[in-house]
Amino acid sequence: MSGRKPRSVANPLESAITTPSERILKECHSLYVDSDNGLVKIANSLGVRLLPPRKKIVVMIMGNHSAGKSSFINWYVEEHIQKTGVAIETQGFTFITSGRKRESLTGNATLHLYPHFRPLLEFKGALDYLSAEISTSKQKKFSLVTFIDTPGLVDGDMIYPFDVNSAITWLGQQSDLIFVFFDPMGQALCKRTLNIVERLSDTCGDKLLFYLSKADEAGKETDRQRVMMQIVQELCRRPGLNKCGFEMPTIYIPNPQKPSRCVNQIDGVCQTIEKAINQAVQKTLNQLEKDCDLISASISSRLEKDKSDVSYNKSVRLYSLLYGAMGIFLPLLFIFSFIVNTFVKEHLEELIGEGLAKILSNLTVIVLYLWEWIPEDGQVVVVILFMASCYLLLFLAKHFSRQRNKTLSKKEKRSLAEYNEYIQDIVKTKKGKLYEWYLQQCAAEYDL
Asked: Which residues form the Dynamin N-terminal domain (predicted)?
C-alpha cells in the first residue's frame, strides 16, 4: 500500500450546489444529446449536422513562465491543483475542470473527456504533454469553467516537444476567453508570447485580455507604471496589435500576511469570467432557438420535396405506361391485322358479332392500306424499322420506370411529423421557460 497522502479537495461532493446558469446549460445540453429525441439525433436523420453546446466556458491562460498562471487557477479553484514556482513547471497543456471526483487524466483520457479538442492530435508530440485535472471544487463559478493552463513561454534555446505556438493559437480559437499574463519581473517582453498574441489578435481579438500579474512584486508604483509602459509600447510596435488602446489591470494573489498598497483588480477577472458565463447561457439559448428553426425548416423542406417527388413519379409513371402500351399495342395490332384479314367477313361476324367485327375491320383496313402503300421491295426495311421503333418505345418505358425518385413511407412521414411536433411543443416550450427563468434570476439578483 502506497504511503502517498490523499489529495485534499476544496469542498466535498455533497456540498455541491447547482447554480441557475449551470442548470440551464446542462438542460440545454441534454436536449441535444438525449438518446431518444436528442436534437443531434433528429438533425442527423435529416442530413443536418448539429454540435451540442458546451456545458462550460473555456478560459485559456497564457504567458511567460512564472507569470502566475497556475497560481491564479489554484486561487480561483481554492485548491492546490497546479504546481507553481520559478522553474518552468507547466510544460504541456493542462485542462482544469470540476467533476464528481478528484482525478488526474493523461492525454488519451483527456481527449475522451473533451472530444472537440481531438484536432490537437495533429500537433505531433502534443498528446504526450496533454493532461486534465478534475476537482470537486464549486468555489466561485468554477463549476461552469474549464481552465487551460498553457506551457510557460520563454525565448532562447528552449526547445518544446511540439509546435507550441500553433497549438496555443488553435486552442485560443476554441476558447471563450484568453487571458494573457505578463510577468513584471523581467520576462514580460518574451518575444514568443508577443508573437502568439499577435497571431491570436487576427481571429480572436475580442477574446484577448491582458493582465499585469504578480503586480505586488513589481516594486513601487513608478516601477509598475514603467513596466506597463514597456509592455504596451512593445505590443503597439506589432502591426496586428496597434489598432486600439490596451487595458492592463494589475492583479496578484491576495495574501493577508503580505499586505500591499498595489491596486489588486483580481476580482475584476472573476467578474469577467462571470460575464462570459452569462453570455454563454444567452448564446446557448439563442442557438437552441436557431437549431429548432433549422430542424423545423429541414422537416418542412423534406415534406415539400416528398410532395414534389410524388408528383414527379406520377408523371414518370404515366410516360412509362404510355410508351410501354404503345410498344406492345402497335406490334400486336400489326400482327392482328393480318390474322383478321385471313377470315371471311361472314365467318368473323358469326365468331365475334357484327359490331365488334366492324370495329376490327376498320382498324385492320388502316393497317393494311398503309402496308399495301409500301413498295414490296421496301416492306422488309419498314418491318425492321417498325420493330426497332417498338423496341425504342419499350426501352423508353423501362427508362422512365427507373427515373422515379424515392419517396417517404407513411412511417417516415409520421416520424417527421412527430419530430416537428416535439420541436414546437416540447423543445421550444422548454427553451422559453428556461429563458424566462434565467431572466427572473437576473432580475432577482440585480433588483431589476
From this structure: 59-182
Which residues, 6 or more positions from 236, have their beta carbon under 8 angstroms from its beta carbon?
A: 242, 246
Nearest to 64 by CA among 182, 179, 176: 182
C-alpha cell at 222: 513608478
Rounded to whole angstroms, how far apart are CA atoms 225 and 230? 9
Model confidence pLDDT, tens digit, residues 288-299: 888 888 888 888
Q: How far apart are CA 308 and CA 283, in angstroms?
A: 37
Q: Is residue 101 part of a domain?
A: yes
Q: Hey, which residues does 209 pair with through a beta bridge?
A: 179
Ranking 57-66, 68-77, 186-195, 411-420 by mean pLDDT, the lowest is: 186-195
What is the C-alpha end-to-end distance of the chain, expressed in Å? 58
Angle, vertex CA 430, rays to CA 426 and CA 434, nearest 5:
175
What is the maximum span of the chain, computed from C-alpha positions, in angstroms? Answer: 132
203-223 pLDDT tens trace: 887 888 888 887 777 667 777
Residues 245 and 303 in one domain: no
- Of 264, 298, 329, which residue is a domain's last? 264
The SS3 call for residue 134 is: strand
For 104, list phi and psi in degrees, rounded to 5. -120, 135
Within this chain, do residues 257 and 296 fall inside the same structural domain, yes or no? Answer: no
